[in-house]
Structures are given as structure tokens and as C-alpha cells.
Amino acid sequence: MARRITRTITQLAIAGIGAFFIVWFLDSRYRVLPARLHNALPAHHPGMVIVDISVTKCSSINPLSSCKLNPAVWHRVEKDLYLDHGWVSSAYIHIRRKKEEELLPEDKVVIDISVGKLVPSSGEKGDDTEKWEPREAGIWVKRSGKAGESDSDRVITSVDVLFGADAVDPRNGWKVIGTPLLLGSSGEMHEPRLSIRRGNPPETKKPVLKIRENGKFKILQVSDLHLSTGTGECRDEEPKGYNNGKCEADPRTLEFIERLLDEEDKPDLVILSGDQVNGESAPDTQTAIFKYAQPFIERKIPFATIFGNHDDEGPSLSRKEQMALIESLPYSLSEAGPADIDGVGNYYIEILARGSSGHSAVTIYLLDTHAYSPDKRSYDGYDWIKKTQIEWFRKTAQGLKKAHAGYSYTHMNLAFIHIPLPEYAIATNSRKGESRERVTAPSFNSHFRDALVDEGVVMVSCGHDHANEYCALSRHENDLPALWMCYAGGSGFGGYGGYGGYHRRVRFFELDMNEGRITTYKRVEYGEINKRIDEQIIVEGGKPAELVNEN
């Protein structure tokens, strides 16, 4: 009796599975299920699909021309393909999209896009109904009329525009079409390129940082990349005439960063400490952001970002818009931070202790140092960390101290900012590394240094002054070490570097939680490329250490 019941249940299960696959097969081709049930199928990706693409061109001297199509039918990608360099001309990409469940039998979904003067090669033999259709600006579109094609991995669900021969798209599921749109000479200045996404984007989860099992953790600080839209122009190139006089700023900068990522046993975390984007030469900020994020995402290295004074000087994206974009990228730990305090990008990161305890071993605070003084008459120069930020930092640090209390291992607090604190300029600081230029700190002192010391931060590091690349020791009133204040040094050829033969560089921090030790050193782009420059221990036993071998 029991065997008969088991056999009957098995037969029913098999019949049920078979029926499911029959219904799924029929629905994928002929939509036999209601939309509510169809959308619940595991193979379905709900959302919008592209059914056509168009380009509009218009002229400011022709009142009859328009760069807008019916917004009820077409969605416009809000990027002028000429990047406002077209004198009197503008052009925009439009896409026609529909919700997948609203597709009609006669609707054709876009399954491929190409750019060029000639009809693209068909490649492998496919459906005879799938033919390349010409559109404006050299765009070719291939569409499929198959029912159910909107569920395939071929369907294009989104289109974006990036610029430059070096454009990349690090987002999951996105791919840049390599050929620039054919707009004529005035549109080739920044070479607009389409980026397409197939399917819906997978969920992006923030990585969890953890001390390695050997007790070590390595941080790479990259500052002042100064990337542009397009390959960029080199400033203060050193050495002069390198590579037969051909210096493209962004490719050379990123090649330097990528080399170190590979040589340094893949750092556990990258801190980007401001001026990643050279605002004035980056009319499309998104393109520049994608370029600096690509090397880290490609190598699956978590990264965290704060802004400098140049990042949002371009016309396209505000600080808030940039941070929203950066937050969405794979492996990004960046955050906008609380909306009720000054600035964008005030947040902290926890690095968990090794093992399975789940407790924090290191806290890293990142704060927005803003840009230029809001009161130039009284305080010329650069802005400062505001009262609301300092109050947030103190409250957060004190709350985390309670959470970290009671554990036997050493816990360390670090901080990163862009513009240096006024205390960097104190002449009596003990120092290791080169000082080639004046410290351009705010002329108003909001005493954030004191807050860092009070809350037990052992090290703060900044960027901003490209050719300064030292660590300075700030002391308590009793002359004991209180806080190490470091510079990363400028890394990008799109920013200045013309002081005393300065070579672009970055700074590393090696944490050894077995000893409560932090060792720091620099690596350079040219010259002593395989050497650790100015290697020194700045924290020992979890506390700021005395300087050995001063400059």
C-alpha cells in the first residue's frame, strides 16, 4: 500500500513538472498565460525592453528643427552628442521602450545595435526575418519579431551614451559599442559611443571587508587622478618626451594604477581621496567615473570614494548625482552619508576581524572637505570641515567605541579627507617625505584635528597638494605622538605636478593587526618603479609611533 502511494505521488510530480515546462514553452512563444502569472516565471526578467532607437539633430539657427520627439512614445537620453561643442548643432539619442507585458504581437524588440557606415556582418546564420535596419548617425538596429524574444538573453533593455576613444562601462551587463557615432567633424571631438545593456541588471551587493587570516590588510590610497572626457592632455609631464613625446593623460594614469594593482598582490581596499574627475575637461562626468572604477571592478577590489574641489566643476553631474552613480557600481563602498549634515560623502567603513566573530577590527572615516571658501573676504582659499560634520563624527565615533569595547584585540581608527588640515603646515612637525609646495589648507581652522585625536584616530591622509607626499607627526601638549597626517601625492597626469621633477605616485598602508602596526610607503610611476619609497612605521601597538629617521 505504501509503495503504491509513493509511486502515485512520484507520477503526479513528474506529470506536474512536465506540464510546467509545456506551459512555459508555449508561454515563451505565444503568451498563453495572464501577465500576472507570466511575470512570475523564473525565466522572466520584468521591466522595459527597447523596440526602436532614433537620433534627432537640431540647430539653434533653425527654429523649425527640434531635438525632441513625442515624450509619450520616446525616451530621450539627456546627453548632447556634441557635448555642447557643436557651435549651433545639438543631437540626442531617443529610445522607444515598452513594458515587457505590454508588448503587442506586431512589436519587434531590439536584439542588437551596431555603428558604422556599412551594413554590419550578419555573422552566424540566423532567422531570415532578423535584418539590420539603418538609423541616423550610422546606427544599425536588428530587431526580432518572435513572440517571447523579450525573455531571451539577446534582448536590449537599456541604452546609454559615453564619450571618448577610451570609454568603458564597468556596470554589470553593459557593453560599449566600439565605433563612435557618425555625426560629422564637430561631433568627433569627444567621440560619442553607445553603451547597451542586455537583460536586467543583477543586484549589486556591497562587499564585506575582512582582515586576512594572516592578520594583514592592505589599503591603496589614490588621489588626484584628474581624469577627463576623452584621453585628456598631460600637464607637467615628467620625464619630458616620454614615449616619443606622446603623452595621453588618462591612459598613462590608468596604466600606472593598473600596474600597481597587479604588482602589489591586489590590495584589499582602494581609497579614492578626491579630484578623481578634472571637472573643467570632463563635460561628461559619468565617462570619467567609469574609467577610474573599471580597474577595481575588473579585479574585484572594493573601493571607497570622497570628493575633491574639482570633481563637480564640470557641467553634467552634481556631487549628489555623482555619488548616487558611484554607489550603484559593483564593489563600491561609497556612500552619500547623512542628508542633514554638510557635504556629500561623510561615512565610515568597518573592516571585520579575522575569524568568524563578526566584530570590527578597523574603522575608516571618510569626510567631504568641500571645495572653495564660502567667505572669501574673511577666509580666502579653500573650504573647511563644518560643525555638523564634526558633531556627526564625534557622535558616530563614540557610539562605535561602545560597540567595540570589551574585545581583547586591538581596534584602530583611520580617516581620509581631500583638502589638508591647517595643522599639516605646522613647521615643527616631525616629517618623512618631500614637501615641494605650500600647504593649501583652509585659512579657517574648525579644529577637526582635535576631534580626530580626541576620538582615537591614529592616522589621517589627504590629497589636494599634488607634489607634497610626506607624513607629518602631530603631537600632544606633552610632546607624545598624537596623530599621523599623511599626503598621498598626486597620481594623475591631467593635474599639475611641476615641482622639482615630481613623479606621479600613490600611497599604500599595510595593516598588521597581530602587532597593531601600520606601515606606509609610496610607489612611483617613473624612475624607481619597483621600490618602496619612504617606507615607515606610523602606528605601533595601536598607537601613533615616534618617527625614526626624519628627513
Strand content: 25-35%
User: What kind of sheet is the major sheet?
Assistant: 8 strands, mixed
Mean pLDDT figure: 89
CATH top-level class of the largest domain? Alpha Beta
Return the CATH architecture of the largest domain.
4-Layer Sandwich
- How many β-strand runs? 24
CA-to-CA gap between the ends? 91 Å
Report on the architecture of this protein:
The chain is an alpha+beta fold. It folds into two domains: about 50-200, Vitelline Membrane Outer Layer Protein I, subunit A (Aligned Prism), CATH 2.100.10; about 215-350 and about 415-545, Purple Acid Phosphatase, chain A, domain 2 (4-Layer Sandwich). It has seven helices and 24 strands. The protein has helices at about 1-30, 35-40, 250-265, 285-300, 320-325, 385-405, 450-455, and strands at about 50-60, 75, 90-100, 110-115, 130-135, 140-145, 155-165, 175, 190-200, 210, 215-220, 270-275, 305, 345-350, 360-365, 410-415, 430, 455-460, 470-475, 480-485, 505-510, 515-525, 535-540, 545. It has an eight-stranded mixed beta sheet, covered by helices on one side. α3 runs parallel beside α4. The radius of gyration is 28 Å and the shape is globular. Residues about 25-45 have low confidence and may be disordered.
